[in-house]
Design a protein that fits this description.
Largest sheet: 5 strands, mixed
Strand content: 15-25%
Order of helices and strands: EEEHEEEEHEHEEEHHHHEHEH
CATH superfamily of the largest domain: ATPase, nucleotide binding domain
Shape: globular
Helix content: 25-40%
CATH architecture of the largest domain: 2-Layer Sandwich
Structural class: alpha/beta
Radius of gyration: 20 Å
Number of domains: 2
Number of strands: 13
Number of helices: 9
CATH class of the largest domain: Alpha Beta
């Protein structure tokens, strides 16, 4: 690998496509975001992704040696075909992404689920560089993630290993979109917490939150709730602690099963800061009883919202291989 090589990391989201060209050293050569416009259908979205890659190449003055593309759903990793993207129109059933993009960008294209891609980014360029075994949680509209064992990202036979949000935390709890009840995703996501904040706003039980969002329910989000809790809204604080407690149970389950060196949180819920992390750590200490869990680090992602792009760069560097 020459020092001049750059690799493209592309993070395909519901509203935007974020792209980066970077070298194996971690030096960024170019970065840009474009709208997804998923309603236009797969072929136009893929054309837009190809255009983004070519624009990045023009800015950097060189074409990427390979592209890593993170996709929000189920994919056939080996063949570069999407199988089911639940939040996209038409769900992108059997879309030949690799075969479409490679002739347009004139280099190999590798696909991976977006949460697993972010995990790979953290492993290669973030906190994971010092970890042998790592559990990575994406805490946003849903809860996803990835699992690293012996320095390798584990995908399982369908590429679905790491669906951490669909572990059962509350038996007979709320019905989840996956069909199960009481999944962690039904209890500790941004939308779930936000809905509780809106309810407190309407009930008059969150005066500080009311002040922060100027009475606008649409402005309630986890970050605003964290500010309200810090300012003295005990009811908001209680809701955050409840959600963080459920998340702590999920983390404790993974620690008991894997005893990782590191647990990493990314996504909007990680904006809750010390109240979230302290509650999770306390829950872990109370629930992991088979061995002392104090040596397990629980950290916020070092890469933040760019973890997916860095994961794409890492996948492209590895030429799609995840065993090195």
């Amino acid at each position: 690998m020459s020092g001049d090589e750059v690799f493209a990391g592309i993070d395909l989201g519901g509203t935007k496509v974020a792209g980066m060209l970077a070298a194996a050293s971690g030096r960024v050569a170019a970065e840009k975001t474009v709208p997804t416009l998923s309603q236009e259908g797969p072929q136009l979205v893929l054309s837009r992704i190809a255009g983004l890659i070519l624009e990045l190449a023009a800015e950097a003055g060189r074409r990427p040696a390979a592209v890593g593309l993170g996709v929000p759903g189920l994919i056939d990793v080996r063949n570069g075909v999407t199988r089911f993207l639940p939040n996209f129109p038409s769900q992108w059933v059997d879309v030949a992404v690799r075969a479409t993009l490679e002739p347009l960008v004139e280099c190999p294209v590798y696909l991976l689920n977006d949460a697993r891609m972010a995990t790979l980014g953290e492993l290669e360029f973030g906190h994971g560089r010092t970890a042998n075994t790592m559990v990575y949680f994406t805490l946003g509209t849903g809860i996803g993630g990835g699992i690293v064992v012996d320095g390798r990202l584990r995908l399982g036979p369908l590429g679905a290993a790491g669906e951490l949000g669909h572990q059962t935390v509350l038996p007979d709890g709320p019905l989840c979109g996956c069909g199960n009840r009481g999944c962690l995703e039904t209890l500790a996501t941004g939308p779930v917490l936000t809905s509780r904040g809106v309810w407190l706003l309407h009930s008059g039980r969150a005066p500080k939150l009311h002040e922060i969002v100027e009475g606008e329910p649409a402005r309630v989000n986890p970050r605003a709730m964290a500010l309200a809790a810090a300012a003295g809204d005990e009811s908001v604080r209680d809701e955050i602690i409840t959600a963080a407690g459920y998340l702590g149970i999920g983390v404790a389950n993974l620690i008991t099963a894997l005893h990782p060196d590191l647990v990493v949180f990314s996504g909007g819920m990680s904006d809750l800061g010390p109240l979230l992390f302290d509650t999770v750590r306390d829950t872990v200490r109370r629930r992991v009883r088979m061995f002392p869990p104090d040596d397990v680090r629980i950290e916020r992602s070092l890469l933040g919202e760019k973890a997916g792009m860095w994961g794409g760069v890492a996948l492209a560097m590895r030429h799609g291989a995840l065993d090195s």
